[in-house]
Amino acid sequence: MESRPVTLGQELEIAEDGIISAEIFRQIKEENKVFIFQGESNGTRYEWTVFGSDIDTPEEMNLKIEFGKRAEGEPVVFRLMTDTSFSFAPVLSIYVDGEWSENDRTVYRRENEKVEKYCEAKIVSDRKQSIINLSLKDAGNYFLPVSVREETTESSSEDLDSEQDQVEHAQDAYVTVPSQSDGRILSDGKQTEKDKYETDPVPAGKPMPVEPENQTVNNQKVYTCTFSIECSSILNHINDLNPDKLGVLPSNGVILPTGEVQFYEGESVFDVLQRICKENNIQMEASWTPLYNSAYIEGIHNLYEFDCGSGSGWMYRVNGWYPNYGCSRYSLRQSDVVEWRYTCELGDDIGGGYAIGE
Amino acid sequence: MRSNDGFAKYHPIVLFLYFAILLGFSMFCMHPAVLLFSMGGSICYYGQLKGRKNLSKLLKRVLPLLLITIVINPSFNHAGATILCYLPSGNPLTLESIAYGIAAGLMLMDILIWFACLHEVITSDKIMYLFGRVIPSLSLLLSMTLRFVPEFRKRFEQVKEAQEMMGRDVANGPLFQRIRNAIGCFSIVVTWSLENAIDTADSMKARGYGSGKRTAYTLYRLEERDKDMILLLCCILLLLGSGGTNGKLFWRYFPDIRGKITDPFTLFFLLTFLLLVFLPAIIHEKEERIWRSFK
């Protein structure tokens, strides 16, 4: 079968009325293109990335968005002007000023005075501007609150403290809520020298690396953590992407949606990644690097280091912190939140530039 | 002239142009049809040049290389969308990396066989003729180094035989002793070669090398058929070049195998390449037939 490979299409400006004709979507679908539609409203620039593979039946779409006036530090409020919902959910990228410290936010949709959670947005941020990526298909008013992190961690800790869990794991050091020591050795921040595997001092309060050769996996003790793999930053750097790799780029930037996974006592982030990729049939290549005493993730889902510019590659984050050591040296605990994210700018775009070091 | 080959009798410029185009394409195009055609053409021509026996000897030497590449590539390259199974290292074995290994191995084989043909067809006197005036020192160096390897081998054989007569056996005896003897042989051959190089230099100096412009006797004349052939090769180069730059010979192995094959333009360019690779074999066969009909 000779199907058309995915290729990069045009970048089009969204007209005043926001209408994109069905003809254009037919072209995108038939030629298997990736089109970018750009617009601006009230000083906020936005961009839709439309993949031909997502379109079932090409039809006219209104991609216009109106933003509310916003000062820095205020929530982002906008309205999707279309009358009917879209048949698929393309990725919307919103460019806002300033650095956003968090990389995930819940997007809320308001309809008839009813406010509901709509989706999770991934934020790609450097010092001057941030790009908010989210998938939208429904008409209506949306807003992103300024800070949601405290709220979500609280709710998740409540879930955890349900009675059953407490009884079962009362004596278990692994199960205390994140941010506490839970059997980990945390950095006191007093270290000034690199350790023997070239790791810069670990910031105070963060877990110290654990050498994989000292860990024993205990298959009897099963815990759960939250795991996700995403590469939405590529959608904002799509012109830098190796054109051969457009075909494997997921149109919403999500390779493995956020979900609960099980792991065994003593397993590292790398062990879990390897198993999860095997289970979900996701291609993953890693190489053991003795210098850092850790595996190095070269590529996931055929998206490799350097595929999207010279500063691109995979990074991982646990509980909101990008460790400055390899993923084989990070030992997991109950309820850890592990995210694998693709960076195009040495971590700066996904808020992890500090992990690279000087 | 080493062999009675019709193609080798063309003017050296034609031969050089031919191999430059052919090797260029065989080296840079990973289209499987191109690789297979190139393989067919090279094997066919080498068989005509050196006979079946030598061909099978060459293939026996080259085939292991193909097998090694097929094994090595998938064990170090894990890219590709089709996961077949997992290797002990934890990395996936993919269909694409195996396919790429086969393609790379075929390309390596193609190039080696074509170079074996080139060695038969473009002899060192032709190299001197082609580059003697443009880059005199390089062509001298080339012809000397090309000659050096077989000569070194011959001398090593001689030294080894002489040493064996004296009881310093390289093939039998304790391992340490054998290594010692082999190193001794090697040292003698190197000394001999270096001494010989000094002799050569002295001899060249005595005959006035470098004192003026050198002339060389050659009996190559650019005939009508050479001009026709140059025209044909230029046409093929233009066609293939345009096909290559327009992506008509596109083929990729990662992340999934994709390429053009049924496109009418692609078919046309592939046929052009087929003509290119079988050109020497066709000419050889044609000359043979004429020769036989005169007998």
User: Rg of chain B, please?
Assistant: 24 Å
Which geometry of chain B do the CA atoms define?
globular
**C-alpha termini separation of chain A:** 49 Å
Strand order of the largest sheet of chain A: 1-3-4-8-11-10-9-12-7-6
What does this structure look like?
The complex is a heterodimer of chains A (358) and B (295). Chain A is mainly beta and 358 residues long. Chain A has two domains: 7-147, Chondroitinase Ac, Chain A, domain 3; 151-356, Ferric Hydroxamate Uptake Protein, Chain A, domain 1 (Beta Complex). Helix content of chain A is 12%, strand content 36%. Chain A is built from five helices and 19 strands. Chain A has helices at 22-30, 149-160, 163-168, 232-236, 269-279; strands at residues 7-13, 19-20, 33-41, 44-51, 61-62, 65-67, 76-80, 91-97, 104-111, 114-125, 129-135, 140-144, 218-230, 254-265, 284-289, 294-300, 303-304, 313-318, 337-343. A ten-stranded mixed sheet of chain A has the order 1-3-4-8-11-10-9-12-7-6. In chain A, strands 14-13-19-18 form a four-stranded mixed sheet. Chain A is globular and about 60 Å long. Chain B is mostly helical and 295 residues long. Chain B folds into two domains: 7-129 and 221-294, no CATH class; 146-205. Chain B is built from eight helices and four strands. Chain B has helices at 12-28, 32-76, 95-121, 124-131, 136-165, 175-206, 224-245, 264-294; strands at 83-86, 92-94, 251-252, 258-259. In chain B, the strands form two sheets. Chain B has a two-stranded antiparallel sheet. Chain B has a two-stranded antiparallel sheet with strand order 3-4. In chain B, α1 packs antiparallel against α3 and α2 (32-76) packs across α3. The A-B interface holds A 2, 5, 244-245, 247-248, 274, 278, 281, 283-286, 299, 302, 304 and B 78-81, 83, 86, 90-92, 94, 252, 254-256, 258, 260-262.
